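Re: beginner question about structure tokens

> Can someone show what the tokenized structure looks like for a real chain? I only ever see the sequence side.

Sure, here's an example I had lying around. Input first:
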Amino acid sequence: MRKVLGVVLMGVLVLCAVSAWAGEMEGKIQAVDASDRSIVLSDGTKLSVAEGVSLDMLKEGTDVKVAYEERDGKNVATSIEVK
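And the corresponding structure tokens:
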């Protein structure tokens, strides 16, 4: 029983650590690079866009709300909402 509890506790700690790298931000799109699947916001923040997230509605000057997470040292947009 102690062993199972220890494994469950480790799993919870790992999930908490992973969620600490997630975040949200808002801004205006400065540039869209469809070939690189990335966007740059007006404050200079560059975000890679995850596969499955559409780039169709993203244009320069569009206000967006972006949910992102850190993957391999890059901020990756997991969802983008046009405001």
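Each token stands for a local structural state, so reading them left to right follows the chain. The chain has a mean pLDDT of 86.
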